[in-house]
Amino acid sequence: MKTNYRHLSAFKDEVLASEEMLALIQNNPKEFFEKINQEPTKIPWVFALIVSIIGLAMIVSITFIGIITLSDPHQITSETGESDLIIQIPQILGIIASSAIAAIAGLLAPSPINNTN
After folding, report:
1. What gap in Å lies between CA 45 and CA 41, rounded to an integer?
2. Quick one: 65 and 82 in the same domain?
3. What is the pLDDT at residue 5?
4. CA distance 61 to 69
5. CA dist., res. 43 & res. 37, Å (int)
6. What average pLDDT does range 60-84 have in this prediction?
7. Cα dist. 93→39, 62, 64, 89, 96 in Å?
8. What is the pTM of this model?
9. How far does Cα 116 stand from its chain's mean position?
10. Which of 5, 40, 51, 104 could serve as 11's disulfide partner, Cβ 3.0–4.6 Å?
């Protein structure tokens, strides 16, 4: 059963087309509207799954960045004859790590609540 509707007409059409939904609304309207009103991020296991996947991406990318950093650096010689050690980290790993950190921060930050009574 879909839990988020943009238009009332789509909700009405789906309720009228489904015998199960009609029976539920007739027998227990409170339970029916509680099911309809659920947001995916308010369901604990969905939120935990999203945070786990993003956290895993962050941990894996940071681990690979650490492995690459600790591996043998390339030694190059500049035009002046000075020798420098260079470690090249693929940009995609940095992008994934920073995006995952931002996503977790965005998920865990409290949303603004409009309490106009």
Report:
1. 9
2. yes
3. 60
4. 12
5. 11
6. 76
7. 32, 7, 8, 8, 5
8. 0.51
9. 29
10. 5
pLDDT of residue 117: 45
Residue 113 lies in a domain: no
Q: pLDDT band for position 76 (50/70/90)?
A: low
Domain extent, residue 33, equals 8-38
% of the chain exceeding 90 in pLDDT: 3
Quickly state the pLDDT bin for 25 (edges 50, 70, 90): confident
CA dihedral for 99, 101, 106, 107, sign (positive or negative): positive
Structural domains in the chain (count)? 2
- What is the token pair recorded at 9? 């007409």
Residue type (1 letter), 110:
P
Two tokens, residue 62:
């940071």
Q: Which two tokens stand for residue 6?
A: 């943009």
